[in-house]
Amino acid sequence: DPDSGDNGLLLYSLVGGPTDEFDIDEKTGQVFTVSLAGKTGTFNLEVQAADNGTRRLTAQTTVTVIVDSSSSSNIVMLVLNQKINVVEKNSDEIQRVLEDKLGWNVYVVAIYSEEFERKARSSTDETQIKIIAFDEAHQEVPAEDVKRKLREQKEDIEEELQKVFSASVSAAIGEAPAAPASSELVAAIVLGVLLAGTFLAFLAYILLDLRRKRKYGKQDLVKKVKIMEGIDNPWAVDKNGSLRSLEKPEHMNN
User: What sequence ranges are listed for the domain Cadherin (predicted)?
Assistant: First the structure.
């Protein structure tokens, strides 16, 4: 907007498209994702710019966003020894420096700190910046190539960032945290643990049952031996091999 003062101040907003999955910075017009976990495809957003004049003027355009699931693998983390609120304020300049030194189009995906509380945003002297680079053919630059270039240009990048922050700057490549396990993987792990627990319990039951049977089998055998010991010549057999009568003859009773 060529107007000066408040009349030239533009505010951006999303007026159409999947606004639950995207959002926009009302001051810069930068579009970013809110909730696109596991989704890919093309999304069309209607973006509106409005000035701050008495008779507010507006203009709209369609922004096409292509979400590629492979993008996450080429995101690189850059760690700066600066407070997060200062880094956020100078994000455009950081992007300019990186594009100039790396020779690619660079997009700042996210800026965050290990401190999550708002009151601590100005107290932590370390901020992580997630970036992704694209070449002239609009293809993602592999993360390893971006890291290699960052190492080669480290001194020049730090020197330029010192001018931006008016302070000594250290830039290091960080390691992104491992992706959380998918719900399917978690379910499979839980099911596997439950099945293993059930199998172990069943195995323990069988072993205990066998021990119980052996124990009581021995007790029954002892009882039978004791009973047989009270009978005169219990092992005597007649000619056909059957046990003789266990009753004593009458003359023996006498």
Answer: 1-77
Decide: pTM greater than 0.70.
no
Q: Check if the beta carbon of residue 104 is closer than 8 Å to that of residue 135.
A: yes
Percent of the chain's residues with pLDDT above 90: 29
**Which residues, listed in sequence order, are joined to residue 60 by a DSSP beta bridge?**
48
Q: How far apart are the C-alpha atoms of 83 and 123, rounded to whole Å?
A: 7
Q: What is the pLDDT of residue 119?
A: 47
Is there a contact between 12 and 62 (Cβ–Cβ < 8 Å)? no
Task: Give the up-direction half-sphere exposure of residue 61: CA atoms within 13 A in the CB hemisphere.
Answer: 8
- The candidate with the shortest Cα–Cα distance to 75, out of 157, 162, 147, is 147
Tokens 């509380």 appear where? 117
Alpha carbon separation from 73 to 139, 140, 141, 171 (Å, rounded): 13, 10, 10, 21
Residue 39 Cα to chain centre, angstroms: 16
- Kindly report the length of the chain: 254
Q: In terms of pLDDT, which residue wins out, 53 or 14?
A: 14
**127, containing H or E segment:** strand 127-134
Query: Which DSSP letter does residue 243 get?
Result: B
Short-list 93, 244, 62, CA closest to 166:
93
User: What gap in Å lies between CA 223 and CA 221, rounded to an integer?
Assistant: 5
Considering Cα of 94, then 97, then 102, then 107, what sign does the dihedral take?
Answer: positive
In 3D, which of 96, 5, 17 has the Cα closest to residue 52? 5
Tell whether the model's pLDDT for residue 96 goes beyond 90. Answer: yes
